[in-house]
Recover the amino acids of this structure.
């Protein structure tokens, strides 16, 4: 099969053997659509620690082609989406349903083979069935939706004045989800804002000059919500943070099933954030487009029905 592989410092499209089930709790999936995000670019460029050789990609949907004997709730030929994070399954975090906080957590496309390939094998517990009304392309967008839904866990007052800081699709997605969930006074960064104007600021970029500006925009006692998984350390000016008694709230993911359900909600408008699909052979072009423009999500199409 074709697979986009990071091998040391190189990224190459290669012909490799299809993956095989190695445990009875796994399923094999024929990938239909896979989204490209910042994390994939960071891994490809060596900015995020990863396995030395692996298939890239973690946002995807497809069709089940093989089911291990211990898998429950997933059937052959079922259309599915996959949550890309897995924990050890045994610690108190995993038992409480918070596998993304597991000290031994692993991510598809970062720590083990991901979805920029024609097939992938994953644990059955990560697999979520799709209704026929949700396209593979939309389902491959469920992971970014779940990441943006994490804002609901930040403990923010929906009646306070807030700002989603950033001019990219993640900022736009987060803003739309917050408005949908009753945050009536949240704004999106579009023009210059007055300092000390906001009760909370949601971060979607972590460049030092932007972080400094976010702190200036916050009122005393305000909250900075950190949600990016950027490879560089976040730089905070304590001369702004401490005197203004700024609070920090870090959030990771919301509920993945909730994100899938939202994709079918007619009040949630996201289709304009989804870009066109490219074959794996065009990976250089797609990577360059993603680096240059973050207004829409870039996709690999690995099936003729990738957008259905």
């Amino acid at each position: 099969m074709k697979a986009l592989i990071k091998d040391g410092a190189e990224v190459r499209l290669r012909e490799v053997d299809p993956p095989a089930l190695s445990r009875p709790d796994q399923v094999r999936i024929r990938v239909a659509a896979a989204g490209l995000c910042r994390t994939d670019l960071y891994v490809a460029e060596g900015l995020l620690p990863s396995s030395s050789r692996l298939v890239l990609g973690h946002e995807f949907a497809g069709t089940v082609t093989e089911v291990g004997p211990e898998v429950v709730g997933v059937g052959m030929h079922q259309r599915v989406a996959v949550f890309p994070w897995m924990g050890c399954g045994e610690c108190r975090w995993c038992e409480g349903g918070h596998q993304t906080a597991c000290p031994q957590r692993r991510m598809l496309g970062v720590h083990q083979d991901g979805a920029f390939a024609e097939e992938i094998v994953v644990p059955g517990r990560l697999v979520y069935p799709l209704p026929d009304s949700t396209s593979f392309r939309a389902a491959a967008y469920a992971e970014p939706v779940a990441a943006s839904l994490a804002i609901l866990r930040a403990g923010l007052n929906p009646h306070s004045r807030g700002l989603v800081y950033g001019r990219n699709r993640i900022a736009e997605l987060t803003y739309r989800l917050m408005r949908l969930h009753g945050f009536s006074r949240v704004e999106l960064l579009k023009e210059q804002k007055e300092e000390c104007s906001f009760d909370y600021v949601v971060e979607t970029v972590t460049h030092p000059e932007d972080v400094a500006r976010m702190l200036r925009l916050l009122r005393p006692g305000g909250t900075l919500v950190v949600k990016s998984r950027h490879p560089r350390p976040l730089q905070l000016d304590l001369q702004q943070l401490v005197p203004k008694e700024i609070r920090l709230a870090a959030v990771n993911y919301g509920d993945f099933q909730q994100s899938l359900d939202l994709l079918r909600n007619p009040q949630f408008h996201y289709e304009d954030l989804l870009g066109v699909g490219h074959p794996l052979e065009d990976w250089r072009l797609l990577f360059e487009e993603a680096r240059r423009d973050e207004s829409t999500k870039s996709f690999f199409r690995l099936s003729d029905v990738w957008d259905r």
